[in-house]
Structures are given as structure tokens and as C-alpha cells.
Design brief:
The structure is a single chain. This protein is mostly helical. It has a domain of about 55 residues. It has a two-stranded antiparallel sheet. α1 packs antiparallel against α2. It starts with a helix and ends with a helix.
Length: about 100
Amino acid sequence: MVSRDLALHWTIRLLSSAALVLFLYALLRLDFPAFIGAIWAGAMTYLLIRVDVERHPTSRDEDLRVDDTEEPATDGGARAMYPLQAAGIPLTYERRSRRARKKGG
């Protein structure tokens, strides 16, 4: 199993490198077959990465705490609201009725 995993990892590395080289060559020389080859190599790399992820799934049930103690369940996490921010500016979306928009706001 280890040799198959190792072969898969090296195949992914080589295909991704080939996709990069072919893409750069296609950009510099404006070569359409190289561009198609880059797309094919990228697609094969993606498919092989998906195969590797399915073979070695990560367990989502494990608690990743360092101290090995379980945190007590609280309702704070369920009620917490995490606003989306971009460059320190809060990006919130508030839905208002059409009547409220027409009144002036």
C-alpha cells in the first residue's frame, strides 16, 4: 500500500509540474496543443488528488485540543454570530421589506 501511495503522490507532483510547464509554454509561444495538454494535465491532477483524499479521509469527529480535555457544551456557540469582514469593514446583509425601502430608508 505504501508503494501505491508513493507512486500516486509522485504522479500528482509530476502531472502538476507538467501542467505548469505546458501552461507557461502555451502562454509564451501561443501554442494551442500545449494549452490543451496543460488543461488535461491539470484535470488529471485534480482527479488523482480526489482519489488520494478518498483513500485517506481525515476524521472530523476527533477533538483537536492539545490538553485532551473535553470542552463543556454551551449554547453560546449556537447563538454566536460571526460577521463577515473585508479590510476591517463589516459586510452584513439586512433584508428589508419593499415598503420600508420606499419610505426612505
